[in-house]
Design goal:
Blueprint (H helix, E strand, L loop, with lengths): L6 E5 L7 H16 L5 E4 L5 H7 L3 E5 L4 H4 L2 H9 L8 H8 L1 H7 L7 E5 H7 L1 H12 L3 E5 L9 E3 L5 H9 L4 E6 L4 E8 L6 E2 L3 E5 L6 H5 L4 E4 L6 H17 L5 E9 L2 E8 L9 H8 L4 H15 L7
Parallel strand pairs: 1-2, 1-3
Antiparallel strand pairs: 4-7, 5-6, 5-7, 8-9, 8-10, 8-12, 10-11, 12-13
Helix pairs in contact: 1-13, 4-5
């Protein structure tokens, strides 16, 4: 069975703040593929990766790296240069999706108003000169987050003007650029989009109900901290609108194979929050829950994605 799609190299780990989650995701993907008889090699991103790929027979990479090089397109660009096929979006498309200060302005779906603020400007002008202007433009409450990070790391809800400087400092701990958005209250859902050669398909939305009320890092990756409902307990109209939003974002950003779009449904319908080209695959992650809700087999889906990448082949991508 394995020869038809080559040797699968599952890349997990990396040096980002999400290393532990990535390793857990990688183990789950690798085991699901092995259970179906495929040849799988697990690897971290090290100086020996290029040699590993050069000496592995007919390699196809399944990247399960979160944050940093795993999602910003850098690794995927390297794989294109090496001529190694891989599952997922191209380097340029990944870069568009990963950076929230780029992604949110690009998509044409309903989205919160946003301001991007570099750390250097914050330091030079000082908080008092900026805080009142930001609040005057966006109002309260606000959501502050790093422009290039995931798993809710460095994210803070701001309800008072006085709390905004500390929230920005928390976001700057994860990168030079922070984004400040108008906070959207409502039902939080995630829409997974897959494409295994028959065109993009939106899986059932998964509803997220964190026990503490905030879907932060602990709520995401600690069993029992969040209740997930799949399919989401939402109206048919909102379910269709969320699916359409996920598909629109996937298309507008030029994504391929797999993406997950996070959405909040308020009184007027779905609002885009962000999208992810390397979503988590752990036991508490949203993509496997959506796959199960769609009555698909997780391992077979992973194999189908690898098969498509194998057929596509490696090489420089313009996407």
């Amino acid at each position: 069975m394995s020869s038809e799609i080559g040797t699968i190299v599952v890349l997990a780990g990396g040096l980002s703040h999400e290393r532990d989650v990535s390793l857990r995701s990688g183990r789950r993907v690798a085991q699901a593929l092995r259970d179906r008889g495929h040849d799988v090699v697990e690897s971290d991103v090290t100086a020996g990766l290029a040699d590993l790929l050069a000496t592995t027979p007919d390699p196809v990479v399944f990247p399960v790296l979160h944050g940093g090089d795993g999602e910003d397109g850098a690794l995927r660009t390297v794989l294109d240069l090496l001529g190694v096929p891989y599952v997922g979006s191209s380097g340029p498309a990944s870069q568009r999706a990963f950076d929230k200060s780029i992604c949110t302005p690009l998509v044409t779906v309903r989205k919160p108003e946003q301001v991007a603020l570099p750390n250097s400007v914050f330091r030079e002008l000082g908080a008092p000169a900026l805080v009142q202007s930001v609040v005057r433009q966006l109002g309260l409450p606000l959501m502050v987050k790093p422009s290039r990070s995931g798993s809710a790391l460095g994210c803070t809800r701001v309800d008072r003007v006085e709390a905004l400087p500390a929230a920005l400092v928390a976001a700057f701990a994860y990168g030079e650029l922070a984004v400040i958005e108008r906070f959207v209250a409502g039902t939080e859902v995630a829409v997974t989009v897959i494409d295994i050669g028959e065109g993009p398909r939106a899986l059932p939305a998964v509803e997220i109900r964190p026990r503490a009320g905030v879907y932060d890092y602990t709520a995401r990756y600690t069993a029992g901290e969040t209740r997930f409902i799949a399919p989401a307990n939402i109206t048919d109209e909102n379910a269709e609108a969320c699916a359409a939003m996920g598909l629109a974002v996937h298309a507008e950003l030029g994504l391929r194979d797999l993406s997950r779009t996070d959405i909040i449904i308020d009184a007027d319908g779905p609002v885009f929050i962000e999208t992810n080209v390397a979503p988590g695959m752990t036991e508490t992650s949203l993509v496997p829950l959506a796959v199960e809700a769609a009555e698909l087999d997780f391992g077979e889906l992973c194999a189908a994605l690898v098969r498509q990448a194998h057929v596509r082949g490696g090489g420089t991508s313009q996407g």
